[in-house]
Specification:
The complex is a heterodimer of chains A (170) and B (198).
Chain A (H helix, E strand, L loop, with lengths): L5 H11 L2 E6 L6 H8 L5 E4 L3 H13 L3 E7 H7 L4 H6 L3 E6 L12 H14 L2 E5 L5 H15 L2 E6 L1 H4 L5
Parallel strand pairs in A: 1-2, 1-3, 3-4, 4-6, 5-6
Helix pairs in contact in A: 1-2, 1-7, 3-4, 4-6
Chain B lengths: L9 H9 L6 E4 L3 H9 L5 E3 L7 H11 L5 E6 H6 L1 H10 L4 E7 L2 E2 L5 E2 L8 H7 L4 E5 L2 H11 L8 E6 L14 H11 L6
Parallel strand pairs in B: 1-2, 1-3, 3-4, 4-8, 7-8
Antiparallel strand pairs in B: 5-6
Helix pairs in contact in B: 1-2, 1-7
The chains are: A alpha/beta (170), B alpha/beta (198).
């Protein structure tokens, strides 16, 4: 039974899919999932200084026979673009879980430009994007993204909307 | 006045470095390091990068974590590693015990016209690696020290990630080109590890 709380549900999916590496730059919207992953002995969690690192580590993991997921906030997508050549050109599975900023009750204007660019730049380089607007859609969407990546060698970004994550409180 | 010793010939240095590789897996950074490793002899345990600048050491990290019983040797250039300066922190914290980063350092961007890189002006990649927690970070300037390092590379497990910076001369030997077909190289490498193409 998959949990109805999406961080728990996604963590359970990682176990079912035998995901062994998680590479991330933290985001508040990902903090529960990161805690679950860090506490899971079956998963090597690697914190990155910049988001493109996770893309390269993920390709190395696949070369060595392990599945992985890359976690980041939308501003980090901009850092990834050239490194995405690697999974796209090598046709290696890539699952990116991206928490959106800059689109729903955002108070910080500096989050807005990259938020606006996130889907267009991912699509421009050839990454499939799937937006999720409701909490109950997260688990089924991540499950199918994993299937597209691990079974069909695709590069997929699941974008978790800021409305779903809730307004950032200060 | 003390002068630096003559830098090493890059092809001879890479041949010496890899002479004791045993069953190690090798990842190469784009440009001349890819050609240097290919010139030693093509090998199904080699993973050649032709792009994704700044990715070589990190591909090595993911591979090292996935294959803990195999040594992973990344051979890259000073420019490629400088672009991934943050990767040194990431690798230092991840602390794989089976990963070596070998930087061929000529202080130049060789592919683009031999413009000087930061290492030519004193930036020290080995010190950066040490500061990030690499357990060993050595600068090699002479053949005897290179030979010692090469013998050490065969050790499967170290206490943590290691870096060796090999000071090489700024010349451009004839290119030795592996396949540019990224899917072919990936699948050949995975098959070497007994993994299916998918």
């Amino acid at each position: 039974m998959i949990s109805n709380k999406w961080p728990e549900g996604v963590h359970q999916l990682m176990g079912e899919a035998d995901v062994r590496q998680i590479n991330y730059v933290p985001d508040a919207g990902l903090s529960s999932l990161i805690q679950l992953v860090e506490a899971d002995d079956a998963i090597a969690a690697t914190v990155c200084t910049s988001e493109e690192e996770g893309v390269a580590i993920s390709c190395g993991a696949w070369l060595g026979g392990q599945r992985s997921v890359v976690l980041m906030q939308s501003s980090g997508v901009g850092n990834c673009i050239n490194m995405l050549s690697l999974p796209i050109l090598t046709r290696s599975p890539l699952v990116m879980l991206v928490t959106m900023r800059g689109e729903w009750a955002e108070f910080n204007p500096w989050q807005v430009p990259m938020s606006r660019a996130t889907e267009p730049v991912l699509q421009a380089i050839g990454v499939e994007t799937i937006r999720v607007e409701r909490p109950d859609e997260v688990v089924p969407t991540v499950r199918q993204a994993m299937s597209m990546a691990y079974n069909a060698d695709q590069q997929v970004a699941v974008l978790l909307s800021q409305r779903l994550l809730g307004e950032k409180t200060w | 006045m003390v002068t630096d010793p003559d830098p090493l010939d890059r092809r001879a240095a890479v041949a010496e470095l890899l002479s004791g590789r045993g069953d190690a897996l090798v990842v190469t950074g784009l440009g001349s390091p890819t050609y240097d490793v290919h010139a030693v002899g093509d090998n199904h345990a080699n993973y050649y990068l032709w792009g994704a600048m700044g990715g070589a050491a990190l591909v090595g990290l993911g591979l090292a974590l996935a294959q803990p019983d195999r040594r992973v040797i990344v051979v890259t250039g000073d420019g490629e590693q400088l672009m991934a300066a943050g990767a040194l922190a990431t690798i230092g914290v991840a602390a794989p015990i089976n990963l070596d980063i070998c930087v061929l350092d000529n202080g130049r961007y060789g592919e683009t016209g031999m413009q000087t890189s930061h290492t030519a002006d004193g930036v020290d990649l080995a010190s950066m690696a040490s500061a990030c927690g690499f357990v060993d970070a050595t600068v090699v300037t002479d053949p005897a020290s290179l030979s010692d390092i090469a013998n050490n590379l065969a050790v499967t497990k170290a206490a943590g990630p290691r870096m060796v910076v090999v000071k090489i001369s700024a010349d451009s030997p004839e290119r030795s080109l592996p396949s540019r077909d990224a899917v072919f190289i990936k699948n050949r490498f995975r098959a070497h590890l007994g993994l299916a193409p998918n």
